[in-house]
Amino acid sequence: MQNNKESLNVKDKTFVDEFLRKEEFREIRYCIQCGVCTGACPLASFGSQNPRKIMAMIREGLKPAILEVLDRCLLCGQCQMLCPRGIQHKEVLLKLRELSFSMGRVCEGLSFVNDLLSEQYNPYMQPPEARTQWMESAGINVEIKEKSKIIYFVGCTSSYMDVSQEIPKTIAKILTKMKEDWTVLKGERCCGMPFLFIGNTDKAKEFAARNVEEIGKTGAEVVITGCPTCWHTIKYRYPKLLNAPLSFKVLHITEYLTEKLASGEIKLKNKLTERITFHDPCDLARYSMVDPPRKILKAIAEDFVEMPFHGKDTICCGGGGLMEAVDSNLRSNVTMKRIRLAEKVGAKILATSCGGCKYYLSQAATQSNSEIIVKDLTELVYECME
Fold this sequence. Notes:
Layout: H1 2-8, H2 13-21, H3 36-40, H4 51-60, H5 63-68, H6 78-81, H7 89-102, H8 108-120, E1 150-153, H9 156-160, H10 166-177, E2 182-183, H11 193-198, H12 201-218, E3 222-225, H13 228-242, E4 249-252, H14 253-263, E5 276-278, H15 282-285, H16 291-300, H17 323-326, H18 328-344, E6 349-352, H19 355-367, E7 373-376, H20 377-384
Parallel strand pairs: 1-2, 1-3, 3-4, 5-6, 6-7
């Protein structure tokens, strides 16, 4: 045991020089070890993560010790939101996971997900051909067309997980009702972000290239997605992964709905009277997508209240960073905390804008016998549409 502890404390000067030489990580040199990042981390209270300590270990060159603590991280980005030095902790941690993967140091859970993604193009042990099964009970005819102005990029969770499948069904109804020229990709694959969580950048690039190629074949001008991670990955990470600009615009469905409500193209027949609160998905809130959901809620809800930790300060639902594959109990504890916060403000409906968030929050509400109903914002808008 002592030998193992000593091996974790081995310092690697080369690692320090190479890592801190990178332009995007130079801020680490100026970390003042204030601990704000750890105070903001949703896992810190469970004793599972300490971002401040990781920054210190990087500067000390404790590579073996760093690689030991990477897995139990939601990669939610909350740690970087309040950093007085502007350190991009999430990007640092993603780079460290890439290093860990290149060294063959990947935990069993993440390794399993990596194999699933590589073989079946999704992390849910489902065959690729089942990706469009949600269409069978959508209530409308969803035509997969060769050419289209809009591509609806569904994403893995909404394609495969029962409770989240109401999202693509609803988006399909809304786009059809708005008489949009739209379709879904015949060969959609995972957006590739889970590969980046694992550290397998080469596979992330492969999936990005494939999805962009398939989108290009349709001549689409706009890609709309209901998944914040897909939105963030396609819009911001694909150009960097592929070293090329996108030929199409990328919108999250909340942006689309906000535009249509503002223009009057979406007309409402009523407002919801139940008290509603909103859970901001990390990949929307961290990237300045706080206002669109609230503009929508203002239009459709008579009684909307904020719960603690909202907007850019939102707490992860627990599903970030593939935590379910690493430690399902820890993931469950984080998710349950969010349900309790929603209950404290007296909400009857907990709205969100993410298939993954809806899946985990719904599961937690059921398991805790909570009376809260979890719904995606698209479902609520459709209920109010004329």
